[in-house]
Amino acid sequence: MQEPTFLILASVADQPLHGYAIVRAVAELSGGDVKLRAGTLYGALERLAEQGLIEVDREEAVDGRLRRYYRITSSGARSLETEIARLRRNASAAESRLRLSFGGGAA
Fold first, then answer.
1. The pLDDT value given to residue 106
2. What is the number of other CB atoms lying within 10 angstroms of the CB of residue 11?
3. pLDDT at 23
4. Domains in the chain, start-ordered, CATH in brackets?
5. Which Gene3D superfamilies did the record assign (predicted)?
6. Helix crossing, 3-11 with 38-50: angle to 10°?
7. Structure confidence at residue 3 (pLDDT)
């Protein structure tokens, strides 16, 4: 799973969010390392919806514009859990190898 996909799913894991709120949540979750642009975000949201990982929760009109809220599906939650486990395994393996080489910290 690519990092932006992971962060988008993580951003809607606890509550439905609209596009701009997802952009802010992704930036916050990544410590500012990932900054999604609108075109990238909406393309990703469309792809994730097609894959059944997220779905539209509701729509509301705000200042004459439609605001669409997205939520994670049960399939999306399972995919996110699987990716979290994979990342933990990889980080643990990397940490173990680093400890063997440097005794607990980088040189």
1. 55
2. 23
3. 97
4. 3-94 (1.10.10.10)
5. Winged helix-like DNA-binding domain superfamily/Winged helix DNA-binding domain (1.10.10.10)
6. 80
7. 95
How far CA 58 is from CA of 65, 81, 92, 93, in Å, comes to: 14, 24, 39, 41
Joined together, the tokens standing for residue 68 give: 């669409």
d(CA 29, CA 37): 16
Structure-block tokens of residue 105: 């910290």
What confidence score (pLDDT) does residue 100 get?
Answer: 86
Q: Which pLDDT score, from 0 to 100, does residue 74 have?
A: 98
DSSP 105: S
Place of tokens 């792809």: 47
What parts of the chain have a pLDDT lower than 50? none
Contact call for residues 67 and 49 (beta carbons, < 8 A): no
Q: Which candidate, 59, 51, 50, 47, places its Cα nearest to that of 16? A: 59
Query: CA separation (Å) from 37 to 4, 20, 26, 103, 104?
Result: 11, 10, 11, 41, 38
Question: Among candidates 57, 42, 50, 52, which has minimal Cα distance to 4?
Answer: 42
